[in-house]
Every structure is written in C-alpha cells, then in structure tokens.
Specification:
Blueprint lengths: L1 E8 L2 E9 L6 E2 L10 H7 L58 H18 L8 H129 L2 H5 L2 E4 L2 E4 L2 E3 L9 H21 L7 E4 L6 E4 L6 E3 L6 H4 L2 H24 L8 E3 L2 E4 L3 E4 L7 H30 L1
Length: 440
C-alpha cells in the first residue's frame, strides 16, 4: 500500500509517499495530519507497545545492513494494491530505531502502522478511497438495518412466548387441581378394590385345588390321546407316501407321453458355415479342416435319423438299405451281392479318387427324396425347403450344389451337406408333430 516515489520536478528532487485504495487500487492523497503523527499518538490507538524509532546519522532510509535486533513490520495483502508506473523507483521501508519527524521512512512507517491498526480493528482493509468508503458505509448500514429488524422479530417472539407461558401456567394450575381430585377418588377406589382382592384370593385358593384335580385327569386323558394320534399319524404318513409315489408315477407317465424321442435324440443346428447334428460338423473348408472322424460320426447320426424316420412312417426304401453303424455307417445296395457303399472316409489323395463314398452320399440323397415323396402322398402340404435332383440339392435363391466330393470344391460340398441336414430337420419336425397329435 505504501510506495516511495522518487521523481524530479523543475530541476529539484522531491519525494512523495503514494498510497492506493485496498479495494479499487486507485492512488490516494493523505491529509497533512499524517505527517505529524508520533509514537505517542500510535500508543493511544493500540495496546501493543511500539518500539521507539530513531534515525542514526540519517542513514536508516538508505542503509542495506540491519542489526539482529532491528524490527521489520510486514503485513500480507491478498491482492495487489497498485501497479508501478514507468520511471518510478520503489524502496521497501523498514523500521529504524530512531527517526526524526521530518524523515521519510518514519512517515511511511507511521502511516503503515495506522492503517494496519485500523484493518486489525475491523473486517475492512485500509486505506480506502472516498467512493469505496461510501460503499462500505452503505453495506454496514444495511447490515445494521437487518440486525435491527432481526432484533425486533426476536423481541416480538419473546413477548409471544412470555404471554403463552403465562397462559400455560394458568392451564397447568387448573389441570393440577383436577388431578388432585382424581387422586383422592382413586385412593378411595383402591381401598375398595383391596377388600375385593382379599375375597378373591380366598376363592382362588379353592379353585386352585379344583384345578390340580382336573390337571391330573387331563394328563391321563392326554396320554391316551397321544397314543391314538401317534397311530393316526403313522397311518396318514403311509397314505401320504403312497399318494406321492402315485403322483410321481403319473407325472413321469405324462412326461414320457409328451416327450418326443426324435427331438431329444437328434439335434440339428448350424455352426458358422457348417451344418451340425448332435454337435458333429458335416463338411470341410480350406480354413477349417474338420477331422474325418467328426464327419464320419455326423454321417452316422444322419443315417440313423433317416432310418428311424422311415421306420416311424412305415417306409421301406427302394434300391437301398440304410445301415447305421456309428462312424462306420454304410448303405447296402439291394439286388447286388456284397456291394456296400461306405458313408465314411479317411482323407488323403487316394481317398479323393474313391467313388464309393460319392456313390454312398448320392444314395443317401436318393433315400431322402423317397422319404419326401412318401410323405407328400399322405400330406399334400408337406414340402422340403431344398429341392433334390439326383446328386444335387439346393433352391433357386442359393443355387444347386453336388454332394459329391470328387471334382468339387470344399465350400460347395459343405453347403450341399448343410442343405441335406436342413431337409432332415424339416422331416424330423413333421414326424414329431404327427407324434404329438397321436398322443394328444
């Protein structure tokens, strides 16, 4: 807040003390009385004892070396008070021990102490300009008005509480008199009740003896009753056990009647580009070389499913007989001795030129076509989603693909086998629906 401004005016060197407002940071002009303040005046403003200030040989304002017992007065300001002007020089003023009244450092120190005392006595930082002081005055005036209004409200509330307390005291006195009268009445009733109580005690002793006799009879009765109840519970437990067994047997019977063997035994689904039956993939891709053991197992499940469906609808295939034998299943050609078409492979270059595996798959496709025609003769609305034409299967949207593996790509062969499993799934669904109708 305090700065010593050294400036030259009209050839002579002058020293001015510049102050800024603690709020708006505008420069302030002090009254002339500030230059006449002494240590005695400051002692009257604050109880804190001020150390005597003195100036030794007039060098206290320019000396850069201080003794250990010199006192430096500082006060932390949270925001800047003023900005330096070009060409100005600023010097931090420290407190010397002895100064004279006309010394610049003495005047600056006294002025700073006065404003520090004023700031410490209130919540407002000093110094302030006239405009900021007016604003602070208005704010304090508003706070005083608010405090007076709050005081008036508290006084009114206190008067209200006092009146209410006086009214309550009168009501309490009346209530106390009423309670005293009730107390006298209750004492009289208590004496009457005590007399009746003695008479009831005598009657109670007599009834206790009668109760003891009845309890003995009750114990005998309860023993007989427990014996009969135990026998009854044993018989009811036996009956309940038999009922539960009967219910369980009936529930199992109903469950077996509603259970579809085909749906539970053969689960046809898909895994990516592969069709699957009971989790076995049917087909191969260049990027997914399925093991031939898995393919053979899938063919075995397919042969077993088609044979079971044919037996359920009383169909006997022409030209072929399906022989489900796990991963070694084959198709027997009727009319030709010792000619079996294996529906299982081993892979390798030699296998690629083995036409019996292709013939077996074409024969399986022929049996599936016979199953379709047999069902269509009974149910006119039945139709498989993919059309079968000799060794090819497909539709107009996806195209037709051969089930032969020789001279065929693995992608087309896998897609054809997926269509075969889809037709099998449709046949399985038809037979399962017919079985549910029969049971219902």
């Amino acid at each position: 807040l305090l700065f010593a401004n050294m400036a030259k005016a009209e050839g002579s060197e002058t020293v001015d003390v510049s102050l800024v407002c603690s709020r708006c940071c505008q420069p302030l002009l002090l009254e002339a009385t500030f230059s006449t303040l002494t240590s005695e005046n400051l002692a009257k403003l604050t109880p804190v004892k001020l150390e005597e200030m003195c100036d030794e040989s007039g060098k206290s304002s320019t000396s850069s070396e201080h003794k250990e017992h010199d006192v430096v007065y500082r006060r932390e300001i949270t925001r800047p008070r003023a900005s330096a002007t070009p060409g100005s020089e600023f010097t931090l003023i420290t407190a010397p021990e002895q100064v004279k009244m006309d010394n610049l450092s003495y005047r600056i120190k006294v002025t700073a102490q006065v404003f520090d005392i004023l700031s410490g006595l209130s919540d407002v930082d000093h110094p302030l300009c006239q405009e900021c002081a007016d604003l602070v005055y208005k704010e304090l005036q508003k706070e005083i008005e608010l405090a007076e209004k709050e005081k008036e409200r508290y006084s009114a509330f206190l008067e209200k509480l006092t009146e209410q307390e006086e009214a309550d005291n009168g009501a309490v006195s009346e209530e106390l008199e009423k309670l005293l009268k009730e107390e006298e009445e209750l004492k009289d009733r208590l004496a009457t009740v005590e007399g009746e109580r003695s008479q009831l005690a005598k009657a109670m002793d007599k009834e206790k003896q009668e109760l003891k006799r009845l309890e003995q009879e009750e114990q005998k009765y309860l023993k007989d009753l427990n014996s009969f109840q135990r026998q009854q519970m044993e018989l009811e437990d036996q009956k309940h056990s038999v009922d539960l067994q009967l219910k369980h047997a009936q529930a199992q019977l109903e469950k077996l009647k509603k259970t579809n063997v085909f749906n539970s035994t053969f689960h046809i689904w898909h895994s990516g580009h592969f069709g699957t039956i009971n989790g076995f993939r049917l087909g191969r891709l260049p990027g997914v070389p399925v093991e031939w053991n898995e393919i053979n197992a899938a063919w075995g499940q397919a042969v077993l499913l088609l044979q079971s469906l044919a037996m359920k609808v009383n169909l006997k295939f022409e030209r072929y007989r399906l022989v489900p034998f796990g991963n070694q299943s084959y198709i027997e050609v009727l009319g030709e001795k010792k000619k079996d078409l294996p529906l299982h492979g081993t892979g390798g270059l030699r296998f690629l030129w083995n036409t019996k595996f292709d013939q077996a798959m074409v024969a399986f496709l022929d049996c599936l076509q016979q199953f379709k025609l047999f069902i269509e003769r009974k149910e006119t609305g039945f139709n498989l989603p993919y059309r079968i034409d000799k060794d090819r299967i497909g539709d107009t949207a996806s195209g037709s693909f051969s089930v032969k593996i020789t001279l065929n790509s693995e992608e087309h062969w896998t897609k054809a086998l997926k269509f075969v499993l889809t037709d099998l799934k449709w046949g399985l669904a038809f037979v399962a629906a017919q079985l549910e109708k029969e049971y219902s």
